[in-house]
Design brief:
2 domains, UDP-n-acetylglucosamine1-carboxyvinyl-transferase, Chain, 14 helices, alpha/beta, binds ligand EPZ, about 425 residues
């Protein structure tokens, strides 16, 4: 397993290009299952999760090629409908295949991700949504087993905003008979991008980006070409890297509006941010000020930037509070940041961060995609050497992060561990 070695202290300077959005690319890759033929997706980021999803599609019988960020999916020979445990356990987003397989083939057997249907990181909203659309769904031996002659439109209310469940139901509903109305739908740009792609395929969808989405089922869809939107979470991560090192960085190929909540919090903390059409200039000239953060569904402060914000606030000039409202257990990065000298106390879903003069480098361990990004940010400013093990977590969601950071002046290298 590879590791990163970082020597902290360099102020980042220069320009970085943001890659395509992982969380838009993954559902759009799966949406190609709704039709037979060859779709072409551009600006697809070269990530472990994209490779895993490509493997998933090949397992179902699709032909997938990926070359220089262009991904082609030919679904004309799809003849299986099972998403096996060994794949789903490595990437929860595999559960996206449930809706399209049910809609196109009337059957699907999809492993539960880690936990159970109703346990930590549940998929109960996906299951209830498919049942509402008329599918028979059982959960047996760790698998979701679903069948439906033809899905029929329904009125679905999600009692919590779920990106995955919204995307899954929206895809299934495109081929259902009649109209589906999703209330309390997720508003994330990834969902808007998925709706745009489905509409290009011939789906009839209205309301994406609001909390009510209406889908009029059609009989079939057609393969399409699409350009994946920039990754707002990668953009936020690089904004954080500029801010924590006291540097000046220009982000290119990003959509400032998609990171509004994060930008406002950074400005509140004293970071100067200029927004262009599809670029951002981030500059810090003095110490970061403490702020209070509460994560929320889009357009609120993104949970996927919570860990990175904790790293920044660990060297702010005062005490900050972070409240995580989306996931119950998303502070795994806190004990690792404490090893770097951060002063953080966690009580259930609230973390109190008392800024310290400086962090000091140490060996730490990555635990998930965004926690590992937070450790990289902390390593960039910690005194001395920080080594981060298990960076396969970061490779799941960031394209060549160490090369991009090095090009901005960071002292970071990848150590290939045996
Ligand atoms: C998506 O995950 C993202 N992943 C996550 O990003 C992101 O953190 C999350 O949305 C929230 O924004 C992808 O898009 C591939 P949810 P998802 O369903 O869809 C609960 C990253 O780092 N819930 O919006 O799995 C759930 O437990 C990843 O790129 C149910 O209770 O998240 C959570 O508390 C990490 N039942 C809340 O809803 C369900 O059936 C939001 O989860 C589904 C979810």
């Amino acid at each position: 397993m590879d590791a990163f070695r970082i020597i902290g202290g360099n102020k980042l300077q220069g320009t970085v290009t943001i890659s395509g959005a992982k969380n838009a690319a993954l559902p759009i890759m799966v949406a190609t299952l709704l039709t037979s033929g060859k779709s072409v997706l551009r600006n697809v980021p070269n990530l472990r999760d994209v490779a895993t999803m490509s493997k998933m599609l090949r397992l179902l019988g699709a032909q997938v090629t990926f070359e220089k960020n262009v991904l082609t999916v030919d679904t004309s020979k799809v003849n299986k409908w099972e998403a096996p445990y060994e794949l789903v356990k490595t990437m929860r987003a595999s559960v996206y295949v449930l809706g399209p397989l049910l809609a196109r083939f009337g059957q699907a057997r999809v492993s539960l991700p880690g936990g159970c249907a109703w346990g930590p990181r549940p998929v109960d909203l996906h299951i209830k949504g498919m049942q509402k659309l008329g599918a028979e769904v059982d959960v047996e031996h760790g698998y979701i087993v679903a069948r439906a002659k033809r899905l029929k439109g329904a009125h679905i209310y999600f009692d919590i905003s779920s990106v995955g469940a919204t995307g899954n139901i929206m895809m299934a509903a495109t081929l259902a008979r009649g109209t589906t109305r999703i209330e309390n739908a997720a508003r994330e740009p990834d969902i808007v991008a998925l709706a745009f792609f489905l509409r290009k395929m011939g789906a009839r969808i209205e309301g994406e980006g609001t909390d009510t989405i209406e889908i009029e089922g059609v009989d079939n869809l057609s393969p399409q070409e699409e350009e994946i939107i920039p990754d707002r979470i990668e953009a936020g991560t690089f904004m954080g890297a500029a801010a924590i090192t006291g540097g000046e960085v220009i982000l290119e190929n990003c959509i400032p509006e998609h990171v509004n909540a994060f930008t406002e919090k950074l400005r509140e903390s004293g970071v100067q941010i200029e927004e262009g059409e599809n670029s951002m200039r981030v500059k810090t000239s003095r110490g970061l000020q403490p702020v209070h953060v509460t994560t929320a569904p889009y357009p609120g402060f993104p949970t996927d930037l919570q860990a990175q914000m904790m790293s920044l606030l660990s060297i702010a000039e005062g005490t900050s509070v972070i409240t995580e409202t989306i996931f119950t257990d998303r502070f795994n990065h806190a004990p690792e940041l404490q090893r770097l000298g951060a002063d953080i106390t966690v009580d259930e879903n609230v973390a109190v961060i008392t800024g310290v003069e400086k962090l000091s480098g140490a060996p730490v361990m990555a635990t998930d995609i965004r926690a590992s990004a937070a450790l990289v940010l902390a390593g960039l400013v910690a005194e001395g050497e920080t080594t981060i093990s298990r960076v396969y977590h970061i490779d799941r969601g960031y394209e060549r992060i160490e090369e991009k950071l090095s090009s901005l002046g960071a002292n970071i290298e990848r150590m290939r561990e045996a």
